[in-house]
Design goal:
Blueprint lengths: L80 H12 L3
């Protein structure tokens, strides 16, 4: 069953069609966003497995992608760059 990429909650939809302004009933995230798409892949260069998609910079906001298909609801981590840098500095800090 399709689900939200933010909270992992299952979303009941008909025919895997999600409107641009539909939101998750559990966390109120906009569902027509990259993070919820089955093509979303953080390991890819653009963050998308679909080679012809025009990928927006902000993958958490709703977009107009024609290739969008709601994914399985695997939750993603959305740590800020500053948080990641401070964690790396703390890890490699000399004592």
């Amino acid at each position: 069953m399709p689900g939200c990429g933010r909270c992992g909650g299952k979303v009941e939809i008909v025919g895997n069609t999600v409107g641009r302004r539909e939101t998750c009933p559990h966390c109120d995230a906009e569902l027509h966003a990259c993070i919820h798409c089955r093509h979303y892949d953080e390991s890819m260069a653009k963050g998308c497995k679909e080679p012809f998609a025009e990928v927006p910079e902000d993958k958490t906001d709703a977009n107009f992608c024609d290739f969008f298909q709601l994914g399985d609801g695997a939750t993603r981590s959305f740590e800020k760059k500053e948080d990641l840098l401070s964690a790396a500095e703390a890890l490699f800090r000399k004592k």
